[in-house]
Amino acid sequence: MVKWYEVKEQAAGHKRLMILWHIYKIAGRKPVEFIVFFVTLFAFIGAPKIRKCSQKFQKIVSGSGSLLQAFRHFLTYAYTLIDVMEMYTDKFGVQNIYFADENDKQILFKDLLEKKGVCFLCSHLGNTNAMRTFFKSGTEIDWIKVNLFLEVNQCKVFKNFLSEIAPDDPINVYPVENIDLTTSIEIKDKLDNGEIIFIAGDRISAHNTGSVFQAEFLDHKAYFPEGAFRFSLIIDVPIYFIACTREKDGKYAIRLQKFEFAAGRKARLAELHKQYIKFLEDLTKKYPLQFYHFYDFFCDKIDL
Question: Which of 33, 13, 14 lies closest to 23, judged by CA?
């Protein structure tokens, strides 16, 4: 089975990315999309293992495990990376981002403005980078500082590229593999000052593969990172599930669900698992091409 941390970045290279960036600055997005289409096609042809993983996943979630559906999956992801590039360099307008539910927005803003600190349990569905644009949009919450937990080697080439084109990015990044007591204390202090954190709940750690729990996802068994959920409860701040989905008009919809469940820690952890997975599952069914896992996500054997 292919693990996520065994998957290499396809068609990525610092020089190639910089060339695309310069083309974008000169000619805009359309020529970059044209080039990315063919780059993605060649990457798709040259990555049989990843291609098969996409086919198996798409067969489960959309009913079609065809090569065409898998290529659409690849291409959707590639175009999302262009969006990410624009978001990092403030070229993606905030008018293209909105909350799917106004009531959810009001609940979130209330917690943020009361400086409670907030933990966002995110995922690799959609493009959570849309929140980067939103938090810099000039609204009443644009003062909030953002902290992000990431695997160091996750999309390393692309992250280095983003660091070069956006060297003044204000988001503070923490490697998830280096979280210790000192990190926890530092994060708690930041949250107490009204800062927020994002941590993914859908990808197990490459450095701690034993710290997982198994759950039913789309009627199949899958592993999820236990540490992300335990950490979210330990820091004792409001928890939100979040995904930013790309809509047909090219805009992004921010989709939220606040976790609320009063019980003991063990029961709360089990309920946190349950609610997060239901949130993610519902959106995956609605946006199958935006669930960006190109590896064997499920534990059980999937045949095409």
Answer: 33
